[in-house]
Write a structure and sequence with these properties.
Elements (H helix, E strand, L loop, with lengths): L4 H23 L8 E5 L5 H9 L4 E4 L2 H7 L8 E5 L7 H7 L3 E7 L2 H14 L4 E6 L16 H11 L3 E7 L9 H19 L7 E3 L6 H6 L4 E4 L1 H4 L11
Parallel strand pairs: 1-2, 1-8, 2-3, 3-4, 4-5, 5-6, 6-7
Helix pairs in contact: 4-5, 6-7
Length: 245
């Protein structure tokens, strides 16, 4: 019996994305293996994630705590889950307790959240958790993230004052219309230079998570080591329709 069309489409789309990643890396004279694709499965069912998993992919991301804690127990334990975006401090324990195989949080943008993450990781007896500092490179008030001028301060705090966290790099969301994408990416690239200089880190030890479905190839060409691809793999997001009041 043939698999449902949408599930077949997701696997086909994943293969296409991986091929485009390789091509972008080659254009930039980079090793394709140095770039990781996070398949962002927001609003998608665990059954569809399983199809992509069965095709060999292991790195998945979610944007909402409730979604990830619902899906993770239904799926294999060797998935490398990543939480992407702003994390509310009151949901830290729920997230970490509910997803034992959470590998990374992409979205630490203040000292308070860093401290709570550090304390909860310790309290649960987990291995140290990788975190990326979220930088608001577009300057939009609606976006989470530290101002570029403050990225060194947060990175230093995570690295020096949070023994249960591993400062692993920087991430940005960027502009939705992609017109300012190159500038946003340049800003994050320059933030990495500053952070690595301040912390005495090698640049290749400091991840850059930038680029999504509409601009991941450009992000790779500009130095991204992690790209977050959702709708290009899984199709348009499916939000519940509001019921008439």
């Amino acid at each position: 019996m043939a698999a449902p069309a949408i599930e077949g489409a997701a696997v086909t789309a994943l293969r296409s994305v991986m091929a485009r990643v390789r091509q972008a890396a080659e254009r930039a004279r980079r090793q394709p293996e140095s770039i990781r694709v996070v398949a962002v499965s927001k609003t998608k069912p665990a059954s569809l994630i399983r199809q992509v998993y069965d095709a060999g992919h292991r790195c998945f991301g979610e944007n909402y705590v409730q979604e990830i804690i619902d899906k993770a127990p239904q799926l294999p334990e060797d998935i490398e889950w990543q939480f992407i975006g702003h994390l509310q401090s009151n949901k830290v324990k729920t997230l970490l307790a509910g997803v034992p195989n959470l590998a990374m949080v992409q979205g630490v943008d203040n000292v308070k959240v860093a401290n709570i993450l550090d304390r909860v990781v310790s309290g649960l007896g987990r291995n140290p958790l990788k975190v990326l500092v979220q930088v608001n490179t577009s300057g939009e008030a609606s976006k989470s993230g530290v101002d570029p001028s403050g990225c060194v301060t947060i990175a230093e705090h995570v690295k020096l004052s949070c023994p249960n966290l591993v400062f692993s790099g920087l991430m940005t969301i960027g502009m939705p219309d992609y017109t300012s994408t190159p500038e946003n990416f340049r800003i994050l690239f320059n933030c990495r230079l500053e952070v690595c200089k301040a912390l005495g880190m090698a640049e290749d030890q400091c991840e850059l998570s930038m680029g999504m479905s509409g601009d991941f190839e450009q992000a790779i060409e500009m130095g991204s080591t992690i790209v977050r691809v959702g709708s290009t793999i899984f199709g348009p997001r499916e939000y519940p329709k509001k019921q008439p009041s």
